[in-house]
Specification:
CATH topology of the largest domain: Immunoglobulin-like
Distance between the termini: 83 Å
CATH class of the largest domain: Mainly Beta
Order of helices and strands: HHEEEHEEEEEEEEEEEEEEEEHHHHHH
Number of strands: 19
Number of domains: 3
Length: about 425
């Protein structure tokens, strides 16, 4: 903006600015003080005298107050240059409100700058998210705008996010698993020149199947999508995970910087098959910073593939056998409240894989469901415990349930009791 008006406020008699605002702008003293606090004396004076008063001061026909450092305002006809700071750091919201008052300007971080109609300066004090505003000034000898007291807001860094549709999934061995690989940015829907990244896996746990549903918009096969590459071992590999040893690389490029013209885009569907010895693994994503758009960060999320927790079973000691005189007696003692060695002494089966502490932890986790045999909401030693013992000993029909079912039971027949206990068989 070309600046023609230069106002020198030195060597003039001071006057009462709040009083001048009260008399000429019909403000209360409180409102006048609030305006001066919000926008500073320079802008408050410009608002008080208006465009005509500013012009008169330029011509020397009116007196003007001495302002800070006797500097020069940026005046262009009916507008004045300002810089405003958002109190809540939401510069975009402040810019929207200032534009509603006629501002011609832009935002950078929490700072808005531009030209605003002089007649609208009084409205600034009413903006809740305005921390403060001040006139843009420059020295009387000319030159660039001096803004040393206002730190420049750093350029906003774009976050490029790669997120699988599921962050964790339990998978059995020899099972196919598929998930979408999604792309988004923060700020949302920010176009870029594209992205290139790798997807990494552990070939001892899963086998890679070719991806499907590949987004073709501006897609470049930086490596053929079906090609499997070796992940370097040094420093944990490209993804920083020493367990992954294979990866594929894919890129999307738009030389015009409009990629992908979409938000929450699904780039492709990843497909794997868990191997017979599958125990669990992570699928990770990585990117070389040199291959990212300018002023951006790569923000990946991994997907954890886990082995399903084993189903609870009445084999309480974990020796592979459900036995009335071991597992059954442990269950009854547990329901009576026995803990420590008195719980397991003499009743743990040969080849047991759980010690006393592990048995307690196991029953604490699954006992309320598994050992509530008659389904009344409470596991009792002389009801549910007896039903478990009889079932393990081979009792059937009325002999299984006689005198051992609670009055408030929801499973009252031998068939229902057997069905519940068999659901926890090996």
């Amino acid at each position: 903006m070309e600046i023609e008006n230069k106002i020198d406020f030195s060597d003039v008699e001071p006057f009462d600015l709040p009083e001048y605002l009260v008399e000429n702008k019909n403000l209360t003293k409180s409102e006048a003080s609030q305006l001066i606090d919000k926008v500073g004396p320079e802008l408050a004076w410009v608002y008080a005298v208006g465009a005509d008063g500013v012009d008169a001061a330029i011509q020397g026909t009116e007196k003007a107050p001495p302002l800070i450092n006797a500097e020069i305002l940026y005046i262009d006809g009916q507008t004045v240059g300002i810089r405003a700071i958002a109190e809540d750091d939401d510069g975009e919201a402040l810019l929207k409100k200032l534009k509603a008052l006629g501002l011609d300007g832009s935002v950078r971080g929490n700072t808005v700058s531009g030209s605003i109609p002089i007649s609208k300066i009084g409205e600034l004090a009413k903006l809740e998210n305005l921390g403060w505003a001040k006139a843009i000034i420059m020295p009387v000898f000319g030159g660039p705008i001096i803004e040393e007291d206002i730190p420049s807001a750093p350029e906003e860094v774009i976050q490029l996010k790669i997120t699988p549709s599921e962050l964790t999934e339990a998978v059995e061995p020899n099972t196919s698993i598929s998930f979408d690989v999604n792309y988004s940015t923060e700020p949302a829907e920010t176009p870029t020149t594209g992205i290139a990244f790798g997807m990494h896996w552990d070939s001892s746990q899963v086998a890679f199947d070719p991806v499907t549903g590949l987004t073709e918009r501006f897609s470049l096969g930086a490596q053929p999508i079906s090609a499997v590459l070796d992940d370097p071992v040094t420093n944990g590999g490209l993804d920083g995970d020493p367990n992954t040893d294979k990866y594929i690389l894919q890129a999307w490029v738009d030389e015009k910087g409009n990629w992908p013209n979409n938000s929450n885009l699904t780039l492709y569907t990843a497909n794997f098959t868990t191997l017979p010895g599958f125990e669990g693994t992570q699928i990770n994503f990585s990117a070389n910073s040199d291959d990212l758009p300018a002023n951006s960060n790569f923000v990946p999320s991994s997907i954890a593939l886990t082995s399903p927790a084993p189903s609870p079973a009445l084999d309480i000691d974990g020796n592979g056998v459900i036995d009335a005189l071991t597992d059954g007696l442990v269950a009854i003692r547990y329901l009576f409240g026995f803990r420590g060695e008195t719980l397991t002494e003499g009743v743990v089966g040969e080849g047991a894989t759980r010690n006393t502490e592990e048995i307690v932890a196991y029953l604490d986790e699954v006992g309320d469901t598994m050992l509530d045999v008659d389904g009344n909401g409470t596991a009792g030693a002389l009801t549910d415990g007896i039903l478990f013992m009889r079932h393990a000993l081979g009792f059937e029909d009325q002999a299984l349930i006689e005198g051992a079912v609670s009055p408030d039971a929801t499973r009252t027949t031998a068939e229902a009791i057997n069905a519940h206990l068999q659901s926890f068989s090996l």
